Amino acid sequence: MKATLEIRQAVRPWVQESVARILVGVSGGADSMALTMATLAEAKQSHVDVVAIIIDHQLQAESTAVALRTKETLLLKGCDIVEIYPVEVVLTDGLESSARRARYGAFDSAIETFNPDYFFLGHTKNDQAETVLLGLARGSGTRSLSGIAVENGKYVRPLLDITRDCTVVACEENGIIPWIDPHNSDPKYLRVKVRDTILPVMEEYLGPGISDGLARSARILREDADALDQIALELFGTLDSADIAVDTLIRLPKGIRSRVLRLAIYAAGTPSGTLGSDHLGSVEALITDWRGQGVVSLPGGVKVERISGRLCLLCTDQRVMTKKEEHSGPGKI
Fold first, then answer.
1. Prediction pTM value
2. Domains and CATH numbers, the chain
3. Residue 313 pLDDT
């Protein structure tokens, strides 16, 4: 039971901190089934309830049967509560992203229903390595290259230092035959190409340990990204968001300045997650490459303009105003 013990050690800190219940997201695959078995074993010692949340994406003919079979297995293995959440995947930005959005919508609903201490997810070290490599290929920044977070609110991923091979062995140790999602072997998906082709070739030519190295890089980059975010947030809190001089911004290191700009733009009304590098680059040019260019239009109807050495933000054709502006006329950010 070596693999099972390794996974139990990984989940133990969060189980011991729990006082009521833990939710576990389950697909029926090796990662989530091994995670659930380990969580059940640890929870019995801590008198914590475990609720398994199975998502039926309804993308394959057998998906409902897989969900029911997984539920039956978990009940037989001692899980007291197993809930199946059927979701409708609305294709808007690719199957993977659309399915993820539907899945997390169901997870959020489960959190509202059960109010758990934590919600465990089964991402492994292999998932982390794949995520970092995909980020490198896209030319992503520090935050994206930092990969998958261990903790994000109530969501916890205890297995980011555990390999996928370990979860497969743990299932064998617990007498579980995991479901193999055919999407996970379909080469039309970029992540599958990374998993089945690119990483093995890198291991062959660069030597073993590539996944370990990528996961380690993600951990280091996340620490750096967290520090930069904190510095920018503290600095932003000292500024009058309706009156930031260009001279103040230009003195900042670019890594801090870009974060301050993001905070200001999102505060003005741009929807979270819609600001791309091209958008930010155009705003950056108003500061560091000023040639008299005009208004920069951003998602959410936000417009940015440089006026008299300051950045002026307007949202949906309405100027963002503070108390100072109300008494002194048009303001600037």
1. 0.82
2. 2-212 (3.40.50.620), 240-328 (3.30.465.60)
3. 82
